[in-house]
Each structure stands twice: as C-alpha cells, then as structure tokens.
C-alpha cells in the first residue's frame, strides 16, 4: 500500500471534498481522484460515497480511517525520531464534555488551540451523558467520575465546587433563607431526577434529604439561566455562577465538591492530535484553577 495514497485518503476524509483535498495537498484534482480510486481497488472496497456536494465515508471507510490515522501517527513519530520538525498536528478531535464545562469554560477558550494548530479541527459535544470512547463517539471525554472499566487512560483535570444561589431580584421579593430548613419554603430548581446518569450529579442530596424541585432542568446551563430569571434557588457551579453579578451566593456554609476527569481510549495514546488536545485542556485548567474552587 502506497503511503501517499493513504495521505490522500486522509485529506479527503478530513475535508469532505476531493477538490479541497487536492488544494491542501497541491495535487491535480483528476490525479487525486484517480489515486483514490486506485487505493479503493487495492483494498477491494469502497471507501467513499461520492456526491455532487462532497464525499462521505462508507462504513468500510470509517474502519479504514482509524487504521490510516494510526499509520499517520507512526509516520510522524518516525519523522520526529529522525530529527524532522514538520510533524504537523492535524485532523479531527471530538471532545465530549458536560454542558456546563463545555459551554461556559471550553467553548470561549478552544479557539486558542485552533490558532496554534490551524490544521486541527475540534468538535465540542456538550451533552449531559456518558460517552463510548471505544465506539469513537468521542476522542476525549471530560467525565464526572474516574472510569474503572475498559481500556481507558484517565487523569484528574480539576476539582470544582458548587453552592446555593438565587437572583438578587428573587431575594428582594422572597427574602433569603436563614438555614437549610428554611429552604423548604422557597422555590427550588434542580436536575430532572430520572435523567441523573451518575451519582456525582446528585448535588441536592448533599444539601437536604428531599430537594423536591418545582422546576427540573437537565442541564447546568439551563439551571443557571432559570436561577438568573428569578425562578427560584438552585445549586450552581461556582465557576459559572460567579460570572453573573445578578446572582448571589446564599448559605455559604453549603459547599459541594466534585471533580472533572480527562479520559480517552488507550488506543489513542499515541495519536499526536489527541495528546495535544488533552495537554491543552490541562494547560487551560491549570492556568485558571482558582476559578473552580
């Protein structure tokens, strides 16, 4: 198998278009298309569905993509060991993160990484659920607990704290609770209980036995917005709530501590682009660790 043909395959897979890939590689459009067909013939399988608006990987193409990226990593490592410095960090890295961390912290900062590595494409998927790293639903997952099963590489990213918050307008109308017991007389905002997929999201259990929220929202950002609107009292991430001067911390003796973990599959350990993103995440958090505690 010709390595140059594999490079062509990777370029088409990443750009989604033969024309865009030919420009990236500096090849004639017809030549690139011919060599891609030659690769498919050598593999005896169809790698792309060619459409008028671009190319889409087939199921076989998706399988070959993983192998091709491993080949690319090995080639880059070989170049580096021989003293070459043109080991570009390129390709797509999908980061799955809890919505609060992904939207409030990562999204405003990930542009710095793209500036550093223009050939890198980041997909940030802020959804409140767990990921299957083995099925490539994400290359890197920010998890709320350290995984104890599977062939995963995991390290603590940071601890973070949560507290009780209400809007200043709400407190002006309803008054501030003097203690935990007084919370029962106030409107409370929390997670949709049957959608809590990990014990680490059960924040209310650390405050009172029955939170019994009148307004349940399945995302941290949604709960923050509800509290900001004056809908009630909520348990919010401190690093998010502190961004809004209209929010006031109440009952400061109530403090809940949790952690974020960076996790990826061990087969991605040697992928330069994945390691670079994981290192960048740690760099970001280390520089601003004070906001999380």
What does the model show?
It is a single chain. This protein is of the alpha/beta class and 293 residues long. It has 3 domains: 3-81, Arc Repressor Mutant, subunit A; 91-158 and 259-292, D-Maltodextrin-Binding Protein, domain 2 (3-Layer(aba) Sandwich), CATH 3.40.190.10; 159-257, D-Maltodextrin-Binding Protein, domain 2 (3-Layer(aba) Sandwich), CATH 3.40.190. Helix content is 37%, strand content 23%. The chain contains 10 helices and 11 strands. The strands form 2 sheets. Strands 3, 4, 5, 6, 7, 8, 9, 10 and 11 form a 9-stranded mixed sheet that branches. Strands 1-2 form a two-stranded antiparallel ribbon. A hairpin with a 2-residue loop joins strand 1 and strand 2. The chain starts with a helix and ends in a 6-residue tail after the last helix. The mean pLDDT is 86.
Helix-strand blueprint:
Blueprint: H1 3-15, H2 18-25, H3 29-43, E1 48-51, E2 54-57, H4 59-81, E3 91-97, H5 99-106, H6 111-116, E4 120-126, E5 140-143, E6 152-167, H7 168-174, E7 188-190, E8 215-216, H8 220-228, E9 233-237, H9 238-241, E10 247-250, E11 256-265, H10 272-287
Parallel strand pairs: 3-4, 3-5, 7-8, 7-9
Antiparallel strand pairs: 1-2, 5-11, 6-9, 6-10, 6-11
Helix pairs in contact: 1-2, 1-3, 1-4
Keywords:
293 residues; alpha/beta; Arc Repressor Mutant, subunit A; D-Maltodextrin-Binding Protein, domain 2; 3 domains; nine-stranded mixed beta sheet; 11 strands; 37% helix
């Amino acid at each position: 198998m010709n390595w140059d043909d594999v490079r062509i395959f990777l370029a088409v897979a990443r750009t989604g278009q033969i024309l865009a890939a030919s420009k990236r590689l500096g090849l004639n459009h017809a030549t690139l298309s011919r060599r891609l067909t030659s690769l498919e013939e050598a593999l005896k399988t169809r790698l792309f569905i060619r459409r008028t608006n671009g190319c889409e990987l087939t199921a076989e193409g998706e399988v070959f993509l993983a192998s091709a990226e491993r080949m690319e990593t090995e080639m880059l490592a070989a170049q580096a060991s021989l003293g070459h410095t043109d080991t570009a960090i390129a390709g797509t890295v999908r980061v799955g993160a809890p919505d609060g961390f992904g939207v409030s912290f990562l999204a405003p900062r990930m542009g710095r990484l793209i500036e550093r590595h223009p050939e890198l494409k980041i997909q940030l998927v802020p959804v409140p659920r767990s990921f299957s790293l083995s099925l490539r639903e994400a290359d890197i997952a920010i998890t709320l607990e350290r995984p104890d099963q599977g062939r995963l590489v995991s390290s603590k990213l940071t601890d973070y704290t949560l507290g009780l918050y209400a809007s200043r307008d709400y407190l002006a109308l309803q008054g501030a609770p003097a203690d935990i017991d007084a919370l029962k007389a106030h409107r409370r905002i929390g997670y949709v209980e049957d959608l809590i997929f990990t014990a680490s999201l059960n924040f209310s259990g650390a405050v009172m036995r029955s939170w019994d929220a009148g307004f349940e929202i399945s995302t941290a950002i949604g709960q923050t917005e509800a509290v900001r609107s004056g809908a009630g009292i909520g348990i919010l991430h401190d690093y998010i709530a502190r961004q809004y001067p209209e929010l006031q911390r109440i009952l400061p003796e109530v403090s809940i501590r949790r952690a974020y973990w960076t996790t990826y599959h061990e087969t991605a350990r040697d992928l330069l682009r994945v390691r670079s993103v994981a290192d960048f995440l740690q760099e970001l958090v280390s520089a601003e660790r004070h906001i999380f505690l």
